[in-house]
Design a protein that fits this description.
By secondary structure, the chain is mostly helical. Helix content is about 70%, strand content about 0%. The protein folds into two domains: about 1-55, Orthogonal Bundle (Arc Repressor Mutant, subunit A), CATH 1.10.10.60; about 65-215, Tetracycline Repressor, domain 2 (Orthogonal Bundle), CATH 1.10.357.10.
Length: about 220
């Protein structure tokens, strides 16, 4: 068994995950070595293999820490909205629930924008196991959101539902990334937009688009 100064297995695993996450955000997957992770976590180098089975699986578990929280928050938020108003709230309420939960996780200042950084790096250099993000995040959330949208907008064709959801998600991800990029830039005169106002715009814009797709008028 690997010894790490008599710390409990859980403490060592959490420390490795926390340190690895920071290094992956700053240096990327390829730019981060197992030796650097172990040194920063003050663990022996064998700890990464012992607890996680290697750098690749450690990277996946770093992602899972965010994926599970975001997925569960999204689903709980959607279900809470749909349980009110006789199970048929307004389209705007559903979109607001989805948008605020999603963006809140991406721009959480206590996490220093780590999820956004991880997403940006993963988009450029894919290292997650094939289908992990799809199976563990997208499918469960998409299933719940699809049912809610169909209930609120029954005129939407089945083929349209995933498209409108991906459109909303794409806008929210871009909002978080641009906001982070502008905040970190030293260039003057960049637009500084209010986050709540930007989310309101996405909700109004998306609601109008969804109604147009469904052939509905407000």
């Amino acid at each position: 068994m690997v010894s790490d100064d008599n710390r409990s297995d859980k403490d060592v695993q959490e420390r490795l995950l926390e340190v690895a996450e920071g290094l992956f955000c700053e240096n990327g997957f390829a730019g981060t070595s197992v030796r650097e992770i172990a040194a920063a976590a003050k663990c022996n180098i064998a700890s990464v293999s012992y607890y996680f089975g290697g750098k690749e699986k450690l990277y996946a578990d770093v992602w899972r820490r965010h994926i599970f929280v975001l997925r569960d928050r999204q689903i709980a938020s959607i279900e809470k909205v749909m349980s009110g108003n006789q199970g048929k709230p307004s389209l705007e309420k559903l979109l607001r629930s989805f948008a605020e939960t999603f963006v809140g996780s991406l721009v959480d200042e206590t996490e220093s924008g780590r999820l956004t950084k991880l997403m940006s790096r993963e988009m450029l250099d894919r290292n997650l196991p094939p289908n992990m993000f799809v199976d563990e995040m997208i499918k469960p959330t998409l299933s719940v959101m699809q049912k809610a949208l169909v209930k609120i907008c029954p005129s939407l064709r089945e083929s349209q539902v995933p498209l409108v959801i991906f459109s909303v998600v794409g806008q929210l991800i871009h909002l978080a990334r641009v906001r982070t990029m502008f905040k970190q830039s030293d260039r003057p005169n960049l637009p500084i937009f209010d986050l709540a106002e930007a989310v309101d715009h996405i909700i109004r814009f998306s609601a109008a688009g969804i109604r147009a797709c469904a052939g509905e008028t407000k």
